[in-house]
Amino acid sequence: MFPKLIAASLAALLLASAAYAENFDVLMLNKGAEGAMVFEPAFVKAAVGDTVTFISTDKGHNAEGIKGMLPESVEEFKSAMGKDYVLTLTAEGLYGVKCTPHLSMGMVALIQAGAPVNKDAVMAVELKGKAKTRFEPLLAQIAE
């Protein structure tokens, strides 16, 4: 009986936490407050279990995880071009995101889910040009 009670308690806890999960909308834009080819907002502070919906406001964009900038247990992801995409934050850490065709134009975003446990790995990834320039202020927003 005791194992069944534990299982039932865990199931109830998981259902209750899912009910409190938040969703954050991130627009994929040709032009936004920070200039051309941007995610808006470009930085999201969330919790594990929350979702981030990348909204294809302007066509021709996608959302893709940046290699080396995802928590260890998170699989790489890449949305279809011009389609909305929902990313569920399944692990604690930082999630670097790029728009594949507009990376060279600096279209990057950063999501923090809980503690930045993979901060050193994210900092070690070398972005170039405008992507690097736009990513630096995002890194400054990381909360320890």
Structure description:
This protein is of the alpha/beta class and 144 residues long. The chain has one domain: Sandwich (Immunoglobulin-like), CATH 2.60.40.420. Helix content is 24%, strand content 30%. It has helices at residues 2-19, 119-124, 129-139; strands at 23-32, 35-40, 43-46, 51-55, 64-65, 85-88, 93-98, 108-113. It has a 4-stranded mixed β-sheet, with no helix packed on it. A 4-stranded mixed β-sheet has the order 3-8-7-5, covered by helices on one side. Strand 1 and strand 2 (35-40) form a beta hairpin. The radius of gyration is 17 Å and the shape is globular. The model has no long low-confidence stretch (mean pLDDT 91).
Entry keywords:
globular; alpha/beta; 8 strands; 4-stranded mixed sheet; 3 helices; Immunoglobulin-like; 144 residues
Please outline what is shown here.
The chain has 144 residues and is α/β, with parallel strands linked by helices. Helices cover 24% and strands 30% of the residues.
